[in-house]
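Here is this case:
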Amino acid sequence: MKRGPCFPQGRCESGYTEVRGTEIRTFGVSEGDVTAIDDWIERVAEKWAINQRAAFRVRLCVAELAANVLEHGNKNAVDGGHMAVTIRKVADGVEVEFLDSLGAFDLTRASETVAPRSEPGGWGLKLVRAYAKELSYVEEGGCNRVRFTISSRDETAGSA
């Protein structure tokens, strides 16, 4: 896999890193990779005994981010691009970091306007904003870095 600011040496060579309470995995950008990300997050959530509601929210937010990279970011990539997901168990939930090596897109500044219900456009980002707490974005060295937290409490994290 690619090395550089997004994917430093060691992080991508094995494709997977596990440290107590933190798991990191790298993926390509394909429909199969989006499915693999979801399956991996489900396994980690089960292993860490994260409640089903929080696990669903993590899976949904990451799947929406990955699907957006697949649909919108992959158009001009020579090598197909890469994504990396870091999941960290914290006292009141899960912290997530999502990296991709494709076109810059700041979801925190993207329009909150969504398409009419009969058309695609903006609904996935609306879900991410609704479920994610402490949502942040930074572009650095050709890498998109999205960070957020999902609460394990039984409450809506964002402002849906």
Remarks:
- The first helix runs from residue 31 to 47.
- The chain has three helices and six strands.
